[in-house]
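Batch manifest, entry 17 of 40.
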Amino acid sequence: MRNVGQRAVPFSLAACVGVVLMLSGCTTAAPTPTPTLSVSLTPTATPTPTPTGPALMPNGSAAQNLPYFTSIVDAVASGPQAAQGRAYIDALTAGGFDKSAMEVTQDLTTVGNQADSVQFSVKWKGECLVGQVGPSVPGPQARVLPLVPEGTCLVGQTRPIDW
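Output type: structure tokens
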């Protein structure tokens, strides 16, 4: 019996070791890592708004529209028709000003020489947007002035705007 008993201990020990090994083989493996989504933000340039420049303000005052008037005057003055009153009237009309509210002086003197200056205006809500260009003027000028007592913007003789 002793032999049987002695064999029983190693058998029991071997059985326990076998069970432990089997159970350790049955444990779940470490979970496989799930890929995580990582987002890296790369800085991008924010579009800069394009400056639009002055615009006609139909409900604005003459002073509020002076920058727009001036921008048109400057554009014409830098072009090939800088000494022609009609070019200013046409550009102001194209810019949205009312042609029937405009006045312009002569481009030429009575003997056919270029005038020392050409003046043009737009009557606007009881005031005048007045421009002046020409060889006697240091550069294109634009101002807001009051109406003259006759209800016009320019003093002296103006030419008809009949085109």
